[in-house]
Design a protein that fits this description.
Blueprint lengths: L4 E2 L8 E3 L5 H4 L3 E5 L5 E5 H12 L6 H12 L2 E3 L6 E3 L2 H7 L5 E5 L4 E5 H16 L11
Antiparallel strand pairs: 1-7, 2-6, 3-4, 3-5, 4-8, 7-8
Amino acid sequence: MFLGTHTPRLDDKGRLFLPAKFRDRLASGIVVTRGHEKSLVIYPTEAFESLANRVLAMPSTNRRARAYARLLLSGASDQIPDKQGRVSIPAHLREYAGLDRDVTITGAGDHLEVWDSAAWNAFIDTYEDDFSNQEDEVIPGLI
């Protein structure tokens, strides 16, 4: 499971150092693509293939399903991290997520999210109070 928050930097060539604690799990291959709220997602290859298969099983007659599949798959870049744990973030994905230098990587269970650090901090500012002051049950059985 991917957990925690990490703040590496992109180098001048658009490469990202994966957090050391995740490198072994990602060494055999990753897929990086568009995420939600203008973030990127990094999946281990096997997990992405499982997600892609679920997406491709959605009815192609559904306009939203087609759009989701197009955006997810057309932005995807499959890679093998180098020996230093770096992966290249393609220019179109850096532009999509507004990545320049300072990035935040967050663990999101079965994948990682990559955010522009300012965008991540804005997200936290927007949702922290709602998270802390939950009055209604968001997930059944979870207090």
